[in-house]
Amino acid sequence: MNNKLDxxxxxxxxxxxxxxxxxxxxxxxxxxxxxxxxxxxxxxIIEKDISKLDKEEISQGVHQLNPLITDIIALKCPGxxxxxxxxxxxxxxxxxxxxxxxxxxTNKIANGSIPDAILxxxxxxxxxxxxxxxxLNKKRIFTSHKFKKEFNEENxxxxxxxxxITDINAHCEFIGKxxxxxxxxxxxxxxxxxxxxxxxxxxxxxxxxxxxxxxESLQYNTDERTEITxxxxxxxxxxxxxxxxxxxxxxxxGYHSENRNINLVNIRDDIDKELTKxxxxxxxxxxxxxxxxxxxxxxxxxxxKGSQTIAAYLPIWLYTxxxxxxxxxxxxxxxxxxxxxxxxxxxxxxxxxxxxTSLLFAIPGITLFIVYLTDKSxxxxxxxxxxxxEYKWQLVFKSIFALLLAIIxxxxxxxxxxxxxxxxxxxxxxxxxxxxxxSNYEQEDKFLELREGxxxxxxxxxxxxxxxxxxxxx
Length: 474
Prior knowledge:
Elements: E1 20-23, E2 28-31, E3 37-38, E4 56-58, H1 60-63, E5 72-76, E6 83-87, E7 93-95, E8 102-104, E9 108-109, E10 117-118, H2 125-138, H3 145-150, E11 156-189, E12 192-216, H4 219-222, H5 231-235, E13 245-246, E14 256-258, H6 268-282, E15 295-324, E16 329-337, E17 343-345, H7 351-374, H8 389-422, H9 430-433, E18 435-454, H10 467-470
Parallel strand pairs: 4-15, 10-15, 11-14
Antiparallel strand pairs: 1-2, 2-3, 5-6, 5-9, 6-14, 7-8, 10-13, 11-12, 11-15, 12-18, 15-16, 16-17
Helix pairs in contact: 7-8
């Protein structure tokens, strides 16, 4: 593989030679003459003290739409339509990492934006192969035999995916009401369960800084469809984005990369939603006393004082497998974080094996059902009429109970294994794992009144599901 670069603007700091190349194994430049190694200027010119941000700053990489570049081009896959970026200095032909179709220069399309930063791979392909084999070994019992037979290490591709990363400096103000369960607690009044609770006026004011809030900027990865398992790619976050360096084309050598097709304007609502969740999580401990009866915010004011946003390539090892059934096709992905080694995947299931194994959990119920049906002690053998009406209904209820005893354990085990292998609910919890700090925190819980004889379990307007925004439930 020819890794030499156009070094017209690069010079060895040791001997002055311009015959330089990039050694991917050590992520450094090497001089062909004196064999010395060195780093390029990797510094990203961004404000590191987020609390000083006082305006919106958008990088060139986020602004750009169709820059004219000669070596890094985007090709449209004729098989699945994906837009794949390749380095033409390295290769004139490549494979699509989604469907493994062959790409060539006849399908060249207009390029997307060049990112500001890149987070180089630190996990080699050899390490990634070991990780994926270890992962699959843990799931070998119910993994599809066809998948095991067709598993091919060559289908594991290193891919740089496009992301938009933003830092935010904000001031937050939450005003509302909350109820606390009183010590006299729950009691019976007029044959109904009622409660007493203290009502408080709640106020939370604080400054919030959010460091490297990361969003996927490839439409394919954000689409939610049952036939693809792209949520797996999202689930391997977070990345150590604090180690991003300035983008240079040579980092793409030996890897695939995707074209960004989501602009900042398309994710502004998502940024606002995640910022609200992060602010809620930041004050999570303060609302624990109100988590039983509940709380309601009349105002959630989040004022963004400043922000800085960049576009970056982040590294993922991706394995793709197409499971073809009679009426549909499911695309399974196994993804490995190219920095942290976090691995998540969707694995095809041997449905016959899973069905038969699930039946084992139904045996007690099936056996009981058969016993009830074959019990003829109260049946006239000539016309199969039961002795009395009472026993007839007793037999019906017993049979239903036996069927439920068979069906419920069967369904529970079957769906648990299916969920574990498919992992369709896996998702990165940004509000928990994104780095954030609060300062200038002010809290006031002002007692308003004692409420007695409450019949509702929660304060009016409280949704218990919202607690996952406040508490550490990954």
